[in-house]
Amino acid sequence: MTVAPNSAAMLAIVFLPLLAAIVAGLGGRLIGKVPAKIVTTGALFISAALSWPIFLGYLGGSYGASVVPVLDWIHSGALQVGWELRVDSLTAVMLVVVTSVSALVHLYSWGYMAEDPSQPRFFAYLSLFTFAMLMLVTANNLVQMFFGWEGVGLASYLLIGFWYHKPTANAAALKAFVVNRVGDFGFMLGIFGTFLVFGTINIPEILAAAPDMAGSTFNFLGMRLDVMTTLCILLFIGAMGKSAQLGLHTWLPDAMEGPTPVSALIHAATMVTAGVFMVCRMSPMFETSEVALGLVTIVGAATAIFAATVGMVQNDIKRVIAYSTCSQLGYMFFAAGVGAYGPAMFHLFTHAFFKALLFLGAGSVIHAMHHEQDMRFYGGLRKSIPITFTAMLIGTLAITGVGVLGVFGFAGFYSKDAIIESTFASGAMGWQFAFGISIFAALLTSFYSWRLMFLTFWGTPRWAGSEHIQHAAHGDHHDHADDEHAADEHDAHAPDAAHVATGTAGYHPHESPWSMLTPLILLSLGAVFAGYLFHHAFIDYHEGEAFWAGAIYFDTHLMHEMHEVPYWVKLAPAVVMAIGLLLAFYCYILRPGFPAKFVEHFRVLHTFLWHKWYFDELYNVLFVKPALWFGRFFWKKGDEGTIDRFGPDGIAALVTTGTKVTARLQSGYVYTYAFVMLIGITAAVTWIMSR
Amino acid sequence: MDHVAVNELGFPILTLMLAIPTIAAIVCLFVDAKMARTVALGATLLDLALGILLWASYQVGGDQWQFQEYAPIFGRFAWALGIDGIALMLIMLSVFLMPICILASWTIEKRVQEYMAAFLFVEVLMLGVFMAQDIFLFYVMFEAGLIPMYLIIGIWGGANRIYAAYKFFLYTLLGSVLMLIAMLWMVQTAGTTFIPDLMVYDFDPAAQTWLFLAFFASFAVKLPMWPVHTWLPDAHVQAPTAGSVILAGVLLKLGGYGFVRFSLPMFPEASSELFWLVMGLSLVAVVYTSLVALVQQDMKKLIAYSSVAHMAFVTIGLFAMNQQGIEGGMIVMLSHGLVSGALFLCVGVVYDRMHTREIAKYGGVANNMPAYALFFLLFTMASIGLPGTSGFVGEFLVLIGVYQANSWVAFVATTGIILGASYMLLLFWRIAYGTARTEEAAKMPDLTKREWALLAPIAAAVLWMGVYPESFMAPMRKDVETLVARIERAAPAGDAHIERGAAPAAAADAHHGEGGH
Question: A226: part of which helix (H) or strand (E)?
Fold first, then answer.
């Protein structure tokens, strides 16, 4: 027999971060920096401490799905929306991911943001984000999910633009919000359509009714379309926006303008995975449409390869990891697309740990290198910051999926291999495409991950070329931690470390404080053991079915089949991982001049990748410029040139005979007419009625 | 109707709510400036208190018309008052915003007595519109309400105030005349001036179209709908802050109220027949004015254009002619009243310090005015329709409602959420973020206590309506249900035409068994 988790605990998990955000945000000035930080960090640690027993309870099979009602929200006719907290195994997974990473990021920010004058605001935003994310993952209806969805968007906007004096940060924040709104446009239409078709927005009811709707058709925008395919694709457009999938991905790399802890929490571990979560939450619905799933597979796979190729040429350490995130999200999506929701969620789970680790590690490197983010000015750091180095090394081993079959592997080994194998076994629409890409992108993942490691921690120091380091070495002390900047500012075609000055410039990198190292160590544990400990529960065909218990569509057959794939399929990820490592080793350790030569020979390819496949340029021409042009056109030619000219101004000209218009207007004659006429009308009515 | 004399409370609360500002307005004309302010504030606060009493004693789910009062004046003309839930909510909006407007006008120094009197008269006439049950009483209130508004723009406005007042007049005049003629015809045909009776009278569908268009001419200008919206940006830009607040907050709602009180229940067939006229103009407004807002350099103009786009959601919702659409349209009205009012107050706060509305003169005010920036951000988000704020509830209901009527309308209208986010965040960025572009902007002090008192209540209301809109929707529910039941026969059928697929259950099982596709 299963029971429901304690509802008081659920309420505390979700609402403590909100309370803390309000206290720190509104009372930050009153109570001071340190109390504001204690309140928020404390709230998150309590939330995390309450979340783990719930997760373990589901793991042990003692808990069942339940809903904690909180308050009525929108009631209108058949539309009944409530504030409710749903908890089942899917929610429980997200709870531990969100609260754990968030708590550690709060702690990490004590050190990373120590010099910032606006710390209460920063911590309040972090807690507010966590609250919105928790509302998203506990949603029992699509509208509350949308509340969380937009709420995390708001927090993301505020945190990307946290250093609001920087134009680049503001632009990135605005872009993130607006691009996400494009996705939300699809999400909202999906919700409307779902309500039209099912008469409800409650997720369990929709999922129960969905199979009966399979194969139905309706009119949408004058076209006769399959109901379930249309609804799923509309919802998926929302997922594409939030999870930065190809086409709506352009905001994510720019989002790196935010402080690094934000990147780790929001743009790696939690918010960007919301799209994957949504597809998994709605998986029984997606299962009714093969076409929609095919689209999910293809978009996911295309994103995986796109982001991996762009990630190879980035020089900014954070942007490499950002593209890596984008690519890994693609993996999760095509796993969902082929029906392997278990592996998709499992990769989401392990990825949260190792990607947060990589980002926080990068933050620690940036901290040590006096806010320099360009890897071309790193090198040889493994001896000066050994703990950060070890953590990053573990993160890299986890993301590249190192492990020995049947013995032990790092987190990514279990989850990524499960995705690759289940894709091969599924035979679903687009599986060949996704499988081919999954292997090739794994090679690229290995390459760019090791490239990052080699450029940063091996070789000779190239610190002398960095302006940040020079400032530091010359004692120009920076007061703020807000000098993070994109490496784009440097010459685009200076390939890697080719002609950068070597030397330390007399600078001594220092290891980060313990507030930053503790989260790194804890996340390292996650990156090492998360796969080994939990893979049975998430993806085993027997245990998995018991664990998920209907929270996602769990295909036991596929989970069984994926172990039966040919041996070369199982071996392939390991082989390409090794090839990627060797390539990176050759390029950045053995022959440091090689990348420059390579780029010279393939300049067109490099330029194409450097410009991120020209998406930003394309969107600028297609959307931004026309919108502004039309805005000006409607204003000047429409309102002023047509409506006013032939409307009020034209009449004025007729009434007041040409030249005297201005004089009469200014003397107020027309205005007097108005007054008199109104009184006249009123009098007329009175007279008519009194007869 | 002669027997309706005493209402539930035992005293004529509606007449009292009209009498208090009337008397106060007259008093204002005979006292000094300082006293006039106090009298005006006192009177509006008293009306607010009565409004709260009214809301508290309103019986949700009770009689359709409550607190009715009736006194024949002469001929057919009668002092007939009474409210339903829809009117109640708009009355609450008015009495809530009025004290805020008076307080926002504390810094006015020119002809204070007349100014306060004009505002109090605006309140009387606005409340009169929502309370009137006699069609000609409604008309008088509806048209006369504009006179003090002309005065406010024309006397206390900016440099180009005469032009703005003139434009305001010209647009409204034509509609007024047509509406009056239609009203006379209706009274003649139906044989009553009593609005509740007219609301259930079935006019000949052929005549309905003409009547609808005559009313439409008046309401479309007030709302305002594209292309008769161009008076609004000028009126807002020239009006003093409190004038803009009351204009955006309540006066624009008169048009929406007119649609829901007259056009829909009295001309349901025409409303359905002219579906595409209303939707077409509304959709143009959403896209067109949003794009125009995107390129504005003047803060007030930007918010004025955004008002046109938002008010288009009202008509879209109302003419979807179903429960969600109409309730959504009502909530958009209430929400927009609060939010755009608050945004104009936010403009007023910095205008008082810098005396310019030019966006380019600001920047970085989050540094020196953090509390201001927080309020501004909240209202920006509410304007964008962020869930948890009032803006979302209305927009969402409107869109989900209209989707059932027509997917094209929903599709185009929903683009408004992208465009709205673009221009509002661009505005917020240029004002609050970045670095100050002028020295004066960097030196502006944060909110005073008086300014806190203006913005904090609206912020609380915006969040309340966003998190628990039930407080505001429950009183209107039964009235909207009555309306929907009346217009059901004419409501658009929807374009979805779902056709169920065959034998889905078996297919799902087989699919499960195969474990793939």
Answer: strand A223-226
Strands (E), A51-207: 66-76, 79-87
The percentage of residues in chain B with a pLDDT greater than 70, rounded to a whole number, is: 95
CA distance B237 to chain A (A): 15
Query: Using a CB-CB distance cutoff of 8 angstroms, which residues of chain B are in contact with residue A192?
Result: 399-400, 403, 410
List CB contacts of B262: < 8 A, sequence separation 6 or more.
B215, B219
Burial zone of A11 (CB within 10 Å; 0-12 exposed, 13-18 middle, 19+ buried): middle
Q: So where are chain B's domains?
A: 286-517
Segment-wise mean pLDDT, segments of 10 residues, chain B, 517 residues: 58 91 92 90 94 92 88 78 94 95 89 90 94 90 83 82 78 79 87 89 90 92 87 88 91 93 93 92 93 91 93 95 94 96 94 88 88 94 94 95 93 93 92 86 88 94 95 94 91 84 50 39
The helix/strand/coil state of A5 is coil
Would you tell me how many other CB atoms lie within 10 Å of the CB of residue B34? 9
pLDDT of residue A1: 64
Contacting residues of B for A682, CB less than 8 Å apart? 140, 143-144
- For residue B289, list chain A residues with Cβ-Cβ distance below 8 A: 634
Question: Best interface-test mutation with B: which of A217, A634, A636, A686 has the largest number of B CBs within 10 A?
Answer: A634
Do B496 and A644 count as a contact with CB atoms less than 8 A apart?
no
Question: Which residue among A178, A556, A558 sits closest to B422, beta carbon to beta carbon?
Answer: A178
Query: A405 has which bridge partners?
Result: none
Choose between A352 and A604: higher pLDDT: A352
Q: Can you give the length of chain A in residues?
A: 691
**Which of B326, B336, B469 is closest to B402 using CA atoms?**
B326
**Tens-digit pLDDT profile for residues B32-85:** 988 999 999 999 999 999 999 999 999 998 888 999 888 887 766 788 899 999
Identity of residue A490: H
Residues on chain A touching B515 (C-beta within 8 angstroms)? 339, 555-558, 560-561
Tokens 């936010």 belong to B346
CA atoms of A510 and A508, how far apart (whole Å) = 6
Q: Helix and strand tally (H, E) in chain B?
A: 27, 2
Burial of residue A331, with CB atoms counted within 10 A of its CB: 0-12 exposed, 13-18 middle, 19 or more buried: buried
Share of chain A above pLDDT 90, in %: 56
Phi, psi (degrees; rounded to nearest 5) at A346: -65, -40
**With contacts defined as CB-CB under 8 Å, which chain B residues touch A673?**
169
Nearest to B425 by CA among B459, B383, B456: B383
- CA B21 vs CA B129, B143, B253, B269, B457: distances in Å: 15, 18, 20, 40, 22
**pTM (2 decimals)?**
0.91
**Residue A371 to residue B302: CA distance in whole angstroms:** 39
Minimum distance, in Å, between the CA of residue B10 and any CA atom of chain A: 30
Cα gap A142→A157, rounded to integer Å = 22
Kindly state the percentage of chain A with pLDDT values over 70.
Answer: 90
* ipTM for the assembly: 0.92
List CB contacts of A38: < 8 A, sequence separation 6 or more. none
Distance from the Cα of residue B32 to its chain's centroid: 33
Element holding B77 (H helix, E strand): strand B77-83
Phi-psi region of B296 (alpha: psi -120 to 50; beta: other; left: phi over 0): beta
Inter-CA distances, A652 with A93, A667, A676, B176, Å: 69, 14, 17, 19
Instruction: State the pLDDT at residue B6.
Output: 54
The two counts, helices (H) then strands (E), for chain A are 31, 6
Q: What is the pLDDT of residues A335-367, one digit of tens each?
A: 999 999 999 999 999 999 999 999 999 999 999
* C-alpha distance from A646 to closest chain B C-alpha (Å): 12
CB B39 within 8 A of CB B31: yes
